[in-house]
């Protein structure tokens, strides 16, 4: 017992360092992921691409990312987080740099669109293990009462990467070109990889293991298929995944189209649009962790079921109202404010989603996280291409208003999630 108490401060220090490192590398990866959306207007002008064509490029990433969520979850349960993130940082760096070479001095110009599809699909495959791996890592190193805030801090990389991308890359694109901007993004990913290689722990320890044994990824071939699929048998897990699918459909509209919407529909100038695009992501950097803290506090106050439900239930329904206002107001500035609020409300639910998943799944949070994230990105794979297609036919106002209805359904689905009933 004394030995356990003596190691507790060390484990707490390692957990904090690990969360900070996960925040750093996932933020660098997300910056590379969304960099193409910032340089997209320049690419579209240079190569004569339409909105619909650029939408297919955005969706190509999500094809690879979505299809490899479940395999990447299995990988996270079997291979160490240290090895996985070293590979991911290398892949992000190389593929972002390669994107910047397409069409340079005629390189690959004749097959520009197919090459972009291929590179973005490969980028999706490489990025797929990111959040299942971080989710499992938190599940085996953090106590349940802290998992929402830990997950939300890592998931704040969505806000960090999306906020930094327009603020950093838009001025570089304007002054030096979109290829240079992608080169800068690639260098940031490389720096994140070096940071992870230098400081990430080689072994992970769980505070829940009283004998002090390390918690490691399950060796390849270990465990039966029945044990491996156990988290997927929970009805609550499928309610959770269905809600996350709809949340992903809504969230990815803002990830891929908010900047272009402000430039091409609301007619903001490029640099002003970049500043406004950064607003929701700057707010999200604080809102995602706040959502996690509120969810953990609500669990203490109201118990696991309603404690985990209350934040996403309220936030997603409120997001629907903001989306309708943002789509239909004639004022561009009111639209920016309403759509910013909608983005923040949607993404502040990330911590409760992932904390609930880890509580339902335990050490199988890799496969469960990959499966849940598959649903989110299935919705996200459709929305970047479907949204402009609908907008061309029924207008942006109606297309976004219809999407608001999905946000309400996503919130209501949480009524079917029971955290205390893991074996149902």
- Through-space gap between termini: 35 Å
Mean pLDDT: 82
- The level of helicity is over 70%
Q: Evaluate the radius of gyration.
A: 21 Å
Tell me the name of the CATH homologous superfamily: MFS general substrate transporter like domains
Oligomer: single chain
Order of helices and strands: HHHHHHHHHHHHHHHHH
Q: Main sheet?
A: none
Shape by Cα distribution: globular
> What is the total number of structural domains?
1
| CATH-level-2 architecture | Up-down Bundle
Uncertain runs with pLDDT below 50, 5 residues or more? 1-11, 208-229
Strand content: under 5%
How would you classify the helix and strand content by structural class? mainly alpha
CATH topology: Growth Hormone, Chain: A
Number of helices: 17
CATH class: Mainly Alpha
Q: What's the total number of strands?
A: 0
Could you explain how this protein is built, in words?
There is one protein chain. The chain is mainly α. The protein has a single domain, classed as MFS general substrate transporter like domains (Growth Hormone, Chain: A, Up-down Bundle). It is 80% helix and 0% strand. The protein has 17 helices and no strands. The radius of gyration is 21 Å and the shape is globular. It starts with a helix and ends in a 12-residue tail after the last helix.
